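Action item from last meeting closed. Structure (245 res):
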């Protein structure tokens, strides 16, 4: 497996990770791991079963038996997510679910269980891994590690627009406060805190469009994997003024 390439893309919410990762996975025809969704689905499963977020034993047991499936549905919509064979794609996208995910994500044993699940996504021909600790903990040997960042204001605005576009109710001020609290929790937890991995290339996307970020990352892909140069270049020339969410 060590020769199956991995690109990790980490960073806080609203930096464009999801969009970038879905494009890269599509361009390279590699597998995609959206690790945040695993934490979100676990939080949703706990809520559905009436399990409290501080009942660590019950949450770990739930994580061990989590029946989650990702069904590829194309770029943009990414994937349809199923929990116990029922669609939960919209339910897991709310900020309430994200905040609940962030609370259970600080339980060390939960991370241990999900670590193994995440590593099963590492399959030929390659993997794009999207998350908070992909480069630091889950795939420390990845050939290319990227860390995306952006100002809190810009991130909140992007999330707001993304939620509105999907038909969710959202209030920019509340959303902004929830995102700041979530990032603070993710960055200060003792296990796998959110931070750039050693050797990660940090890109600030605050004032960049998706085309510029894709161009930046494509250059990194070309330098790291020269054999993919043509494939990346073919796709890159078709990207124009897309919105980063
Ligand atoms: O990326 P997303 O916003 O879906 O992640 C939801 C939450 O899941 C994050 O705020 C974080 O607490 C947790 N998470 C994590 N480690 C990851 C991915 C997500 O702790 N690799």
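Sequence:
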């Amino acid at each position: 497996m060590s020769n199956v390439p991995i690109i990790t893309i980490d960073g806080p919410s609203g930096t464009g990770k999801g969009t970038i990762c879905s494009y890269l996975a599509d361009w390279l025809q590699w597998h995609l791991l959206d690790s945040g969704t695993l934490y979100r689905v676990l939080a949703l499963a706990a809520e559905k079963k009436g399990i409290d977020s501080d009942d660590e034993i019950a949450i770990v047991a739930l994580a061990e038996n989590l029946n989650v499936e990702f069904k590829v549905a194309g770029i943009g919509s990414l994937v349809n997510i199923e929990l116990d064979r029922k669609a939960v794609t919209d339910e897991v996208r709310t900020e309430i679910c994200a905040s609940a995910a962030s609370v259970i994500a600080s339980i060390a044993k939960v991370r241990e269980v999900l670590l193994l699940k995440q590593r099963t996504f590492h399959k030929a021909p390659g993997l794009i891994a999207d998350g908070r600790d992909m480069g630091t903990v889950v795939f420390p040997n990845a050939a290319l590690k990227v860390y995306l960042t952006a100002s809190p204001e810009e991130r909140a605005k992007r999330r707001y627009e993304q939620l509105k576009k999907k038909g969710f109710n959202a209030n920019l001020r509340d959303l902004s406060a929830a995102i700041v609290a979530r990032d603070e929790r993710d960055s200060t937890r003792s296990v796998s805190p959110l931070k750039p991995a050693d050797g990660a290339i940090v890109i600030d996307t605050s004032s960049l469009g998706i085309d510029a970020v894709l161009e930046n990352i494509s250059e990194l892909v070309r330098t790291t994997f020269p054999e993919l140069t043509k494939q990346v270049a073919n796709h890159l020339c078709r990207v124009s003024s897309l919105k980063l969410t």
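Note appended to the action item: Residues 6-238 form a domain with the Rossmann fold fold (CATH 3.40.50.300).
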